[in-house]
Amino acid sequence: MRWSYVAPRLALLVLLWAFFFFAFDPLLKWGLIKGIEKGAKAKAEIASLETSFLHPSLRITGLAVADSGSEYSNLLEFSELSFAAEGAPLLEKKLVVDAASLKGLRFGTPRKTSGRLAFVKEESSELVESMKAESTGFALDRASEAKADLSADYKVDPAGLESVKLARQMEETYQKDYADISARFDAKKYQDGLDALKARYEKAKGEKNPLKQAKEYAGIAKEVKALTADFKKDKEEAEAALAAAGDAFKAVEDARARDMAALMAKMKLPSLDTQSIARMLAGPVIAEKTALAMKWMGIAKKYMPANTKGVLKNEARRGREVHFPKEKTYPTLLVRRLELTGELGLEDPLGYSGTVEGLTTQPQVYGRPTVAAIKGAKGARRLDFSASLDATGDIIKTASRLSYTGMPVKELRLGSPASFMVDITGGTGALEATLATEGEKIAGKAAARLAGASFKPRAENIKAAPLRSAVESSFAGLSSAVIGADISGTVSSPRLAVNTDLANALSKAFTGAMGAEVKKAQEAAKAKVDEALKPHRARLEGLAAEKQAELGEKLKDAEAGVAGKAEKLLKDLVPGKAKLPKFKL
After folding, report:
1. Distance (Å, whole) CA 134 – CA 142
2. Model confidence over 365-376: pLDDT tens digits?
3. What is the pLDDT confidence band of residue 226, given thresholds at 50, 70 and 90?
């Protein structure tokens, strides 16, 4: 035996074994903690991390991630995550897990030490801050001393109105959207396609072999029908896209209502419309929950896969590395099925369990969406959550649905200390919510129903005794309520609409107690906002009518041309029949 040959290699193996046995797990644990802290902008802890290379596996216990917005709370924590990797993909530097397990997942748990990181500042949500400001500015203190000419003291600057800014912005956006829709709908390609099929038909007419001629005729007829079907689909999409662009005009009306509420606040007067009252009452609470959801979406977006296959070609400094295709290609990271369990809530928590399937960094390689399904039940409480993320195409799409019934409502506070608050205690609640995204676009609805609760108004900030008495009496005997919200816009700039039946009772109380003088002042203020907005709204409506008529005429002419050519060609392809049924678009 040549010890000079064996000894160095044996020493290298011993060193490699020592590294993986003593140093690899601590280094991986440290790197994982730093990576989580960078993404969450808060402290993270891991109790233990163990790996095995003989049978490739990983086990993490006691992970907790602090909430950057709440110093002594955790964003999430779990007791254990474990999985075993498949061996063959590891040879290709790919991690494929057939089954993984996540146990004890909980959210919003308290922590004993501060979770803040040094030199990291939590960014405030613009949506939450605007809702808080709107609720704080909902003034009630001058209701009893208002004069009919109170609005004369306040001048309206059109440039400062949100509705005017939005109308101007929408003029530009609508022009661009129309140009994009018009460009996408190209009738010429269908005309050219039918002309090419007509040329094929003229050539086929000279075919001497009847069987070949019949086969060619059948092929041409099939392509004509497919072409006209594509035309119909593109036409419908163009019409739907233009209608969707027109639906955005509702946002101007919503902004107008907010301008009215802002002007009322400047005059120290409350708005009487239920929308403004609903935003004052439920806006801050809903905005906080929405901001939390947006925060989770932001964290998820950082780790969302790029919508490209990317693994099939690598550019080198010189030349090109060519990958030979294989019958079975693995994504770089894939967890086929993750079993999870956890608890929802801190007091009397609700246990739940579920699965997540198709977690991958390369969905286009895997070819399937990621789906999740979670259920839980305890006594009268029921939890049902489902979600999907489809990144197999060019645009990432998500859809989720949540149903939580029988949840206890121990304490809920609506409104603002600066204006008016309502404390809701006891009772049970039911929440139904849906949320969908397509690229940056977002759309969702949520409705919470409270039953068997106690409503206690805190109206000490209302100086006028008649108004204070009317507000307090409006909640007398109340035991149920419905609070809803619609979200639209984009992930980075969401728009929130709030509604609640509590606003109806308050609106009646305000209207009955404040007198005709306040109503006159509000009407004068409304006239000022409408006068400032009128030319911009008229221009926007005129633009929409013009472009809709223009596109409608374009679609009508294209339909007539394509339908006429298609019908004539189909008749020619079936000689001997006096009349065929019309091919309708």
Report:
1. 17
2. 888 999 999 999
3. confident
